[in-house]
Amino acid sequence: MLLKTNAVVLKQRKFGESDAIVTLFAKKVGKIQAVAKGSKRPRGKYSVGTQPFCYGEFVLFKGRDLYQISQVDLKHSFYKLRENVIKLTYASYILELTESIITEGQTNNRLFHTLIKCLSIISNMDKEYDTIIKAYELKLLMYAGYKPEIDICVHCANLNTGKFKFSSREGGLLCKDCFGIDPYALQISNVTINVMKYLMDTDLTQISRLKIKPNILKELNKIVKQYIHTHVDKDKFKSLELLESL
Ligand SMILES: [Zn+2]
């Protein structure tokens, strides 16, 4: 069975002497593994188009266990992501996080388009990636079904106490009366709540022109990190560790 679909390469690993297994986020079938025959040979047919970040139209043949790539029509390699190590590491984190959240065989068009847009925006930036990364993290969580509740108290539905905390475990805001149910709940200011809403609801292109203030960003970083850690089944992100060591 042949399948033609747009897809982004999330990951590539060597398979045997000269082949590779690539993890694709495909528009028509979600996350899949596919063999790229001969892609590890210097002039292999698929050595171009099966590297991480590559976005193109793939023709896939469904074998017994795995898909096999039979053709790639490259639309964008996002080569500018490789211009500097910080940019590349942020972009690698985007792929790593996406790969760990999406599920095999499940389509997610909104997320697919958001990922491509995000890679395209980052590839044209040269500094201050934090705001766009936070926006992508929140949109990814939202589109993958992990949207945090930030309109009302997630426990008692109270919407007007003036002061909230953020509980990753409970999945959103806790009002003053409910602080006690999660001892790990984090401080969250009303400004940060509004910034979170903005990042979730606004288009990435518009967000890319903004910069979150350092103190808000610091609070938001802590919250998003804890939230991802609680809801994503992955302990460590190699790219994040690298970023923290740079
Ligand atoms: Zn409450």
TrEMBL record:
Signal sequence extent: none
Gene3D superfamilies: Nucleic acid-binding proteins, Recombination protein O, C-terminal domain
Keywords carried by this UniProt record: DNA damage, DNA recombination, DNA repair
Domain DNA replication/recombination mediator RecO N-terminal: 1-78
Any one biological process term the GO annotation gives: double-strand break repair
Any Gene Ontology CC annotation: bacterial nucleoid
Name this polypeptide is given: DNA repair protein RecO
Species this protein is from: Crassaminicella thermophila
Task of the protein: Involved in DNA repair and RecF pathway recombination.
InterPro entries in the cross-refs: ARFGAP/RecO, DNA_rep/recomb_RecO_N, NA-bd_OB-fold, RecO, RecO_C
PANTHER family according to UniProt: DNA REPAIR PROTEIN RECO (PTHR33991:SF1)
Domain of life: Bacteria
Family assignment from sequence similarity: Belongs to the RecO family.
Pfam families assigned: RecO_C, RecO_N
Gene this chain is encoded by: recO
